Amino acid sequence: KLPIREEADIYALLGMQYVPAELREDWGEIEAALAHSLPTDLVTRQDIIGNVHSHTTWSDGVDSLEAMALAAKNLGMKYFTVTEHSQTSSYAGGLTEDRLRQQWDEIDAVNEKVKGIRLLKGIETDILEDGSLDYPDSVLEKLDVVIGSIHQRYNQDEAKMTARVLRAFDNPHLMIWGHPTGRLLLKREPAPMDMERIFDKAAEKGITLEVNGCPERLDLKPEHVRSALKRGLKISISTDAHSTRELASHLPLAVACAQKGWARKSDVVNTLNSDDFLKAIRRRE
To answer: What is the separation of C-alpha 162 from the centre of its chain, rounded to a whole number of angstroms?
Structure first.
C-alpha cells in the first residue's frame, strides 16, 4: 500500500506537479504537470486590491457612491473605479456629459470623506454600431478609467461585429474591453466575433481585457482567458457590481474564471496599487 494522505501525494508519486482543481479541464494541464510547467502562482481573491467596473445610483445601481466605496473598503479594496453607464445606455440611466461632470464633484467629496480607499473617475462607454465611443475625446481624456462595452448589437454579423471592435481599439482613450463577448448565460449567445483577430489587435494596441464576475456573464470565459494570456495580454478581474452585495458576491466568480484560464497574479492589473494600475491600463502601443 502507498501512503496517500492527500491528493498532492498522488501527483508526487507520478512525478507530476500538483494540478489545482480549477485547472482540471483536459486543456493540456496533464502534459504541463508532467513537464513541471504549470503556473504556480494562480491569482487569488486575496490578490485583488482594486474594484474594477461598478455602478451606483447615478446610473442603474441600487446603492449610493459613498455606500459602495465603504463596502469596497470593508472588503479590503484600496481603490474603487466609478464606471457608470454612458449616455447611449439611457435605459440604464446612462450619464450625459453634464451629469458625468456633476458626478466628478461627488467623487471628489467622497474621496475627502472616506479615508483608506481611493475613488477613480471612470465610465463604461458604449461602443457604438460603427465602432466609435459615445463621448468625445475631450471628455474621455479627463477620465482615469475608460471601459468600452457593447450593449446593443444592431443585428450585426461576425464581420461587422469584428470590425466594430477593431475600430473601437483604435481610440487611444479606450483602456479596458468590458464583458467582451456580451453573452448572458442561458439567455443570450456570445456576439459573433473573430476573437483571435481581436486579441491580436488588443495586444498590438495595449488593451486590457475584462473578466466579468456577473453570474449571468462570466465573460471572458476561461478558454478565451488562456488565449489572451498567450499573447501577453493583461486582464482585469471585474465585479460589474450594481450593489454593495454584488461587490462581495461577484468577485469570487471573476477570480474563478481567471484561475480556470491559468491567470497568474502578474497577469491581473487590479492586483497592483492604484498608481501602478493606472499605468498598466494606459495604452502601451
So the answer is: 20
Question: Tell me, what amino acid is at 128?
Answer: L
The CB density around residue 164, as the number of other CB atoms within 10 Å, is 21
Average model confidence (pLDDT) across the chain = 96
Round to whole Å and give the CA distance between 108 and 275: 17
Neighbours of 266 (CB within 10 A): 13
Reply yes or no: is the peptide bond before residue 220 cis, omega within 30 of 0. yes
**pLDDT tens digit sequence for 220-230:** 999 999 999 99
Segment 101-156, tens digit of pLDDT:
999 999 999 999 999 999 999 999 999 999 999 999 999 999 999 999 999 988 89
CA gap 138, 124 in Å, rounded: 16
The torsion region of residue 262 among left (phi > 0), alpha (psi -120 to 50) and beta comes to: left
Q: Give the C-alpha distances (Å, rounded to integers) separating 44 from 208, 214, 215, 275, 280.
A: 19, 17, 18, 21, 19
CB crowding 200-234: b at 16 or more within 10 Å, else e: ebbbebbbbbbbbbbeebbbbbbebbbebbeeebb
Q: How far apart are the first and last CA of the chain?
A: 58
Is the pLDDT at 85 greater than 80? The verdict is yes
Instruction: Report the b/e string of 48-81 with b at 16+ CB within 10 A.
Output: bbbbbbbbbebbebebebebbbbbbbebebbbbb
Q: What is the DSSP letter of 171?
A: S
pTM of structure: 0.95
Contact between 173 and 121 under an 8 Å Cβ cutoff? The reply is no
